[in-house]
Amino acid sequence: MKSKPPLIGITTAGQMDTRLFSIRGDYVEAVRLAGGLPMLLPPGEPDPAAILERIDGLIFSGGGDIDPAVYNDSSHPTVYNVDRQRDTFELALAKLVLDTDIPVLGICRGLEILVVATGGNLVQHLPDEFGDAISHRTHQSRFCEHHVQIDPDSRLAAMIGITESEIVSWHHQAVRTVPPGWRVTARASDGVIEAMEHEQHPWAIALQWHPELALQDPYQQRIFQALVETARKRTI
Predict the structure, then answer these.
(1) So what's the architecture of 7-235 in CATH?
(2) Cα–Cα distance, 57 to 93 (Å, whole number)
């Protein structure tokens, strides 16, 4: 008897002025290629705990900036696409999922959500503090590529099988303060934190880069394969 594919929840951008929930199709494709069944999670759900009763894995997707007021900071002029309903929903979901054994992957904004949900804060605009030796995005609407160094003793390195990688990058913010329970596992050469993993949770990985935009790279594919396989084991 063929086993059912694990159900992987993927957060989406909110409606705001468009009345349309949205997400890049790359996230869905990545989950499907890894053998999972994608389930889109629009913000506004009043009972996030009910979601966790149904899904086997969770991806916090990329998107607009988190409202700096959430981590007690004033807003930088470059902050864009703030969606307070999405912030509220995802922060609540993040706090809940880290108290379960559900595997969770944060991507770009998703990393930032996991950081802020557990007490950390953010650098709001990288060029102001890290300069422009590395372009972490070429423009608000375009991604770029750069190198990262991965901790050889990390779960991430064991998962993908390498300790250096060229990654697809599309962000202008990053972690400033690493909250308790998290360990930094990758950095760019300018010092920007590019990946973290939770030290108590069974499988919580957070990436500042976009592996879903590099599915032709087998190393990046392994991230989604590991998420889906871990989720599958929960259903056995």
Answers:
(1) 3-Layer(aba) Sandwich (3.40)
(2) 12
- For residues 134 and 144, the answer to whether their CB atoms sit within 8 Å is no
Task: Report the pLDDT value the prediction gives residue 1, as an integer from 0 to 100.
Answer: 47
Contact 189, 147 (CB under 8 A): yes
Q: How confident is the model at residue 144 (pLDDT cuts 50, 70, 90)?
A: confident
Structure tokens at 142: 């375009």
Map out the domains of the chain as residue ranges. Answer: 7-235
Tell me: the pLDDT tens digits for 64-113? Answer: 999 999 999 999 999 999 999 999 999 999 999 999 999 999 999 999 99
User: What is the token pair recorded at 221?
Assistant: 């594919």
* CA 54/CA 40 separation, integer angstroms: 12
Residues annotated catalytic, as ranges: 108, 210, 212
User: Closest Cα to residue 155, out of 193, 118, 199?
Assistant: 199
CA distance 193 to 221: 21
The pTM (predicted TM-score) of the whole model is 0.95
